[in-house]
Amino acid sequence: LVKVAKKHRARIMVDDAHALGVIGPMGRGTAAHFGIEQDVDLIGGTFSKSLASIGGWLVGERKVLDYVQHFASSFMFAASAAPPNVAAAMAALEVMQEEPWRIDDLRKNFTYMREELTKMGWDVGHSQTAVIPLYVRKDLRTIMMWKELLDNYGVYTNPFISPGVPPKQACLRTSYMATHTREHLDRALEAFEAVGKKFGILAK
After folding, report:
1. What is the average per-residue pLDDT within 22-49?
2. Which pLDDT belongs to residue 74?
3. pLDDT class for 103, splitting at 50, 70, 90?
4. Which of 94, 162, 163, 172 is most deeply buried (CB count within 10 A of its CB)?
């Protein structure tokens, strides 16, 4: 993509919502992971995942950021980020820098879950981050499985159904943290297996 963009004088923007604090050296994200930080024009993401806050961020050339700030429709009538939200995001960044072992633990956890879920028979797509989808494909079944997991197993997932996702892409989005223990993960795996079999996603 970088080669094609340069050839046609196009710009590349990377959505790092799921990657900051997860992949790349010191959790610096996708571009750092692939060693192309200097070749990417814009990197954006959200405060609501690894930064544990509310809001979003965009990094790039100053004149481009100025243009976005003054002409992007999403900024029309938008208020500045609340100071507590900014402080929380800054504190999360400090934790990433000062306690890199948390990123290592996170990688171990989501790698373990991705491998075990795949062995179990779940379609987890191509996720390489701490957000792993369990594809169900049908909207109603997705909601029923979400409720079953929460009510009977105490396992919370995020159901994604149309129009939030394309048709036949309905899934249960699972997310993992550095502080999850192997006991937590194995308990979740047992629940995913039981519910997957009950609703015909996994072979009995």
Report:
1. 93
2. 82
3. very high
4. 172
**85: part of which helix (H) or strand (E)?**
helix 83-98
In the predicted model, what is the mean pLDDT of residues 156-180? 96
Could you give the CA distance from residue 194 to residue 173 in angstroms, rounded to a whole number?
A: 17
Buried b (16+ CB within 10 A) or exposed e, 75-85: eeeeeebeeeb
Longest dimension (CA), the chain: 58
Per-chain mean pLDDT for the chain: 94
Distance between CA 96 and CA 127 in Å, rounded? Answer: 22
CATH 3.40.640.10 is right for the domain spanning 2-98: yes
Rounded CA gap, 48 and 158, in Å?
Answer: 14
Parse the chain into domains and list their residue ranges.
2-98, 101-198
Q: 101-198: what fold?
A: Aspartate Aminotransferase, domain 1 (3.90.1150)
- CA distances for 132 relative to 22, 48, 159, angstroms: 13, 17, 12
Name the token pair of 164.
């939030």
Q: Is the pLDDT of residue 8 over 90?
A: yes
pLDDT given for residue 75 in this prediction: 80
Both structure tokens of 34:
């692939």
CB atoms near residue 110 (< 10 Å): 24
